[in-house]
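I am still getting used to backbone structure tokens and would like to learn alongside you. Would you supply a protein for us yourself, any chain you care to pick? Start from the sequence, derive the backbone structure tokens from it, and show both lines together. Go ahead whenever you are ready, and we will take it from there.
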Amino acid sequence: MSAKRHRVRVVVCPGIHERALTQQFIEGLLTTGEERLHPASWLVFPTDRYPAYSGLHILRFLHEKLSTHSPDAALHTPLILIGFSAGVVGAVSAACGWRSLGGVVKALIAIDGWGVPLIGDFPMHRMSHDAFTHWSSALLGAGEDSFYADPSVDHLDLWRSPQIAAGYWVKPGSSSPPRGTSAATFLTALLCDYEALL
């Protein structure tokens, strides 16, 4: 008998900003036309109640939301964490903590996590509001496929309106030039690749 397959859960870790921006971010992703995108089931970490940069608070939040019959039940749920700005700090810390507890992290997506090292034994991706932030952040870990806006957009606009942030999809080690796309399309494609839309 095969083991039960657990659905991948998306965990959104906002930065320090108005809550409405996170809702606009999610609505912006819906414009890609990906019918399998189900953000109603996503877990949005409440940064109005806890520090955005606190991995410990994110872990507690995850155990509270995902533990059903036993505390260990949560760890059987594979996660994709999407962090923005200060939320990248919390997301990286929580992802590493989740792994150390025996949980599965399918991927971490760091949106404008400038100055935040990408560490962990799971796939990581960067998204940046301009080319300088993108290339300078890569010094602390480029991760796998990444995106940067060009022309540049405001830091908060990348979160608020990913559907209008045009830029380039960069594949590390590829001889092909970066491909033009939007931040929303790039992110939705990653979620599809990691089976978060199934």
Residues 62 and 74 are 7 Å apart (CA to CA). Residues 9-193 form a domain with the Rossmann fold fold (CATH 3.40.50.1820). The chain has a mean pLDDT of 91.
